[in-house]
Design a protein that fits this description.
Order of helices and strands: HEHHEEHHEHEHHHEH
Number of domains: 1
Helix content: 55-70%
CATH architecture: 3-Layer(aba) Sandwich
Distance between the termini: 28 Å
CATH superfamily: P-loop containing nucleotide triphosphate hydrolases
CATH class: Alpha Beta
Number of strands: 6
Structural class: mainly alpha
């Protein structure tokens, strides 16, 4: 969905990319992660994503500790990016793509939260194809997140994405137009 927003001209910040970047660049954060997971957490200075993923989706305590370390830093970095965009770019709104918006508390920083949902089996299939992973890995990830019904109840807008890409493009086009109409330029109160 966010790639389609970009096609229409929206600025999108991908929280997962921000998290990966700061987990590799922020030395203080790297030390905390190594303390939690050991030296195996990094290979040649790069985050060992497979190792971290395997641990956090089988050890809830470590997952929660990692989230408590990383989420506040990601939120700070995204807010900094908001400010940079407001000074340097002509954007009336910014989209943030994040799987853990509610779990991290970041929803409190946003004007609107859009939840994209689909039939569970379709979601599992799409994630397996996108991430080249097993059904079991997808189910572990889903179990570690807030339930989709809870996310739907907290969302300002819910998009059902059981159709093809053109159906999704039409929904995004509508939202893009709506957000342009209701948004003040970034930085205005």
């Amino acid at each position: 969905m966010c790639k389609i927003f970009e096609e229409f001209g929206a600025k999108v910040i991908y929280a997962d990319e921000v998290a990966k970047r700061i987990m590799e660049e922020d030395e203080k954060l790297k030390r905390k992660i190594k303390k939690l997971f050991g030296d195996e957490a990094y290979i040649g200075g790069k985050l060992n994503r497979k190792f971290i993923s395997d641990v956090i989706f089988s050890d809830e305590k470590k997952r929660k500790v990692l989230e408590s370390i990383v989420h506040p830093e990601v939120i700070k970095k995204i807010i900094t990016e908001f400010k940079k965009i407001s000074k340097n770019e002509n954007q009336s709104f910014v989209i943030v793509e994040a799987a853990l918006i509610f779990e991290s508390g970041f929803d409190k920083e946003l004007d609107y939260v859009v939840v994209v949902d689909a039939d569970e089996e379709l979601k599992i299939k799409r994630i397996m194809e996108r991430d080249n992973c097993t059904r079991e890995e997808v189910l572990k990830r889903m179990k570690a997140q807030m339930s989709q019904s809870k996310k739907r109840s907290l969302a300002d807008i819910v998009i059902q994405n059981d159709g093809d890409i053109e159906a999704l493009r039409e929904r995004v086009k509508f939202l893009y137009s709506l957000f342009q109409k209701i948004s003040k330029p970034i930085g205005e109160n």
